[in-house]
Amino acid sequence: MPFEDYRAYLDAVEGIGELKLVRGADTKSDIGPITEITAWSPEHPLILFDDIAGYPAGWRIAAHSFDSYQRMRLIHGFPDGLRGRALTLWWKEKLDNYVPVPPRMVDSGPVLDVVQTGDEVDLTQFPAPLWHADDGGPYLATGGASILRDPDTGRLNVGCYRGMLYDRNTLGHHLAGGHNGQVIRDKYFERGQNCPVVISLGNDPAFTLAGAENVGFGTSELEYGGFLRGAPFELVEGPHTGLPMPATAEVVLEGEILHPDHEDKRLEGPWGEGAGYYASAFAQPPVRVHACYRRHDPIVLGEPTLRFRNRGAAGGFAQTARRWHLLERSGLEGIRGVAQSGPYLVISVKQHYSGHALRIADYAMAGLADRPPRYLVLVDDDIDPYNPALVNWAISTRVDPAAQVHIGRDRWCNVVNPAGLTPAKRVIEDYTIGTMIIDACKPFRWRFDWEKMFSHSDIPEQLRAQTAEKWADKLGPLITAPKPA
Ligand SMILES: Cc1cc2nc3c(=O)[nH]c(=O)nc-3n(C[C@H](O)[C@H](O)[C@H](O)COP(=O)(O)O)c2cc1C
């Protein structure tokens, strides 16, 4: 169901009983900790902070917008009860039938209720929390999304990038290496130009979710977001940059990422990353904000990264579905299932020839829908990749590590995980790291011998059923329980 704007979404969230209003919290010492500890419980409510100490009533921060099964249902519209593999498959089939829904340009919208330009711009008017105790400063942009235009192709790109508040008209903006935003920004820099940008701080949930998905270079998140939303986004043209901005947004900042020859880089961070560590502060080109557009009583989205955020029973299905969809589009035969299981991406494969499973793994390791998985596990098609016990059984019994573990080196990664990122690599901003493919498939070359040498010792289903029937009176539920899948 398309939501007109974030407020319509909030009404729907309230309607399903998942909205919690918190009044009187402080940006320095309350909002960050409340957001963190409430994120640990499964299916926690959306928290709306109002009457924030030192800010006008009605200037709100909304946290946990996407953190429950029912809230994801509101946005994606999947049938109640779908979980795990069925839910991933449901979204994958949508992606298989993807039809871009292009945005519509309009002349006006509520985001233009208040327009401030030049010296009137004052970013400190917005509540910007210290989300984690040792962050380098308050962060204003954590849950919205930014739009940039590729200067080579003219295509628009949307991404969620955090923004640290420096002063009245300057923000830090973290465009991680390898994300399309970074590539586009640096194309401007190579031309000696600043990079135009608009940063939305609060918007229809489909806008943030489309921005957060790695849809591939050149594919428009604006069109994908329209598909996700079920209706085109309405956009107004920003007069300073010519970039479009969501007409129904809560707040939009329009400006430029400054070329390092025009203005010195500034330290961005430290920031409490989702991996559970502070990454150090890095010099980044700052954003100079030329204009600020907002509603009278804006709602700023707050989605700080948190180590133990529990996104509820639906968490992660969209990215897994996209990886599965892209893998199938490779034209490679035999892909039976794709799942995220703990730290592993697991792919189940029906092998048809020697080298088949690793060929699929090599394709997945290109980093479909974001960075390559650090650990990729290949399993045969008798293993449900959604069942961790079976995946672990395959790893334990079908892998000779000396032959079936393949290490990749210097693969695309980021700064947030300390593993493998030596101090020397950090200095030169080399965020590459190793990867591992665990080929837990029965080796294809053994296909004529494996079953003879190692037939399964589990009780056959027929014997289990016979035994259950014969001994039902004496043993009851002890033996009638189905065999664990
Ligand atoms: C709440 C949130 C915050 C994020 N913060 C950042 C960030 O600060 N920097 C970044 O590069 N990616 C961040 N990401 C991930 C990117 O938005 C995501 O990978 C996106 O697909 C990148 O888009 P791009 O490849 O078009 O640049 C964040 C995602 C979410 C949902």
UniProtKB/TrEMBL annotation:
Gene Ontology BP annotations: cinnamic acid catabolic process; ferulate metabolic process
Domain of life: Bacteria
One term under GO cellular component: cytoplasm
Domain named 3-octaprenyl-4-hydroxybenzoate carboxy-lyase-like Rift-related: residues: 106-301
Location of the 3-octaprenyl-4-hydroxybenzoate carboxy-lyase-like C-terminal domain: 320-440
Record-linked InterPro entries: UbiD, UbiD-like_C, UbiD_Rift_dom
Molecular functions per Gene Ontology: carboxy-lyase activity
Protein name: UbiD family decarboxylase
